[in-house]
Amino acid sequence: MARRALITGITGQDGSYLAEHLLSEGYEVWGLVRGQANPRVSRVRRLLQDVQLVRGDLLDQGSLISAVEKVQPDEVYNLGAISFVPMSWEQAELTAEVTGMGVLRMLEAIRVCSGITAARGAGSGQIRFYQASSSEMFGQVRETPQNERTPFHPRSPYGVAKTYGHFLTQNYRESYGMFAVSGILFNHESPRRGAEFVTRKVSLGVARIKLGLATELRLGNLEARRDWGFAGDYARAMRLMLQAAEPEDYVIGTGRTQSVRELVEAAFGAAGLDWERYVVCDQSLHRPAEVDLLCADPKKARTQLGWEPTVSFEELVAMMVESDLTLLAGGGDPHQDSSWP
Ligand code: NAP
Ligand code: F7E
Fold first, then answer.
1. Ligand 2 mean position to 83 CA, how many Å?
2. Where in the chain is the domain with CATH 3.90.25.10?
3. pLDDT tens, 32-82?
4. Does 263 sit in the ligand 2 pocket, CB within 6 Å?
5. CATH code for 195-226+258-294+311-336?
6. What separation in Å is there between the alpha carbon of 292 and the centre of ligand 2?
7. What is 166-224 written as a DSSP string?
8. 89 contacts 156 by C-beta, under 8 angstroms
9. Is there an atom of ligand 1 within 6 Å of 57 CB?
10. Which bound ligand lies closest to the C-alpha atom of 218?
């Protein structure tokens, strides 16, 4: 029988790539969607027609219990979160509730529906749980590159909330014997990335300038360095973690690091433009506390899961610029649900 997966965050970038990947592996895929009339749900219905939808919200314990009872999943992927770091300063409490406490609610839904107690433990045939942890937990990094043993020092309410979810996942594994793991994923991007994140903001900015729709691009800190990979590659890693013999956490990244300045150079270069003529540095876009340098050591994922990234930084940037040029040249709107390639 087909394995059954439940994905929270199905309307987001990663939810879409993971759903496509699981469908291609023969899974029956269910996506948790929230809200009375969430406009992003129609995007999922259009792009992911084989995904079945179930209503629920990470803020609502009862709805998660109902969703798990209804779907009876073999695997749960918890990708739902408030994921935009600057928003986590503006709405710190909501971020803690969704990105942090949401993990507790999802784990409790699985525990209650499976009849797991500390005395009885999880046993075999249990629901396997994946938590979307983040390199933002490393924050002000203690060593470079960062691996599974690098201590955390989060720098935003988002990073703090993810750190809570990470340790809670580990605690449910240790307390109840649950197959609960975290993927510590470094930044991953695609033509489906939200327009608020820097890679997509840059690829859309380049496309607008190239097409004569804008004359400048305003950015914040150009010196921050990130390890950027392709989201499709990272979705494969999530599934691999839940197929492992033992529940363990893994760092997923490329092992290369680039500055925002290098990203900008590459993106404008891909469209034959000189970035220095168009980019305006805007102090108001700097963050209260920055994560200066992230660079993954993905050795454990390579050796134990056989996972490798397939798209280089240069290929990723070219892919995103080309996609946004096509989108905008065709009159598309990146904020509309029809825009996903
Ligand atoms: P994204 O595009 O921002 O998607 C976030 C998802 O969370 C959306 O589907 C959103 O659904 C859902 N969500 C928000 N509030 C919710 C709530 N109260 N209940 C249920 N769902 C809710 O994020 P992404 O880039 O795909 O990332 C997926 C996960 O990986 C996130 O947890 C993120 O923090 C984590 N992560 C991402 C990266 C990265 O570089 N992309 C790296 C490390 C970790 P709505 O449509 O209902 O708003
Ligand atoms: O910023 C700098 C900014 O917003 C990257 C999320 O998926 O990855 C993501 O978090 C860097 C930062 O991603 C602008 O200061 C400069 O240093 O694209 P971002 P992020 O904060 O790294 C992690 C792993 C996650 O888990 C998160 O969910 O770029 N930067 N100028 C800018 N950033 C933005 N957004 N906009 C600018 O204008």
1. 10
2. 195-226+258-294+311-336
3. 999 988 989 998 999 999 999 999 999 999 999 999 999 999 999 999 999
4. no
5. 3.90.25.10
6. 11
7. HHHHHHHHHHH---EEEEEEPPEE-TTS-TTSHHHHHHHHHHHHHTTS-S-EEES-SS-
8. yes
9. yes
10. 2
- Select 4-188+228-252's CATH number: 3.40.50.720, 3.65.10.10, 3.40.1190.10, 3.20.20.150: 3.40.50.720
Q: 198: CA distance to ligand 2 center in Å?
A: 5
**Tens-place pLDDT, residues 251-297:** 999 999 999 999 999 999 999 999 999 999 999 999 999 999 999 99
Ligand 1 and 81: CB distance under 6 A: yes
Asked if 163 is an active-site residue, the reply is yes
**Of these residues, 99, 163, 169, 199, which one is catalytic?**
163
Query: CA 88, CA 79: separation in Å to the nearest integer?
Result: 17
Q: Where in the chain is the domain with CATH 3.40.50.720?
A: 4-188+228-252
Least distant ligand from the CA of 192: 1
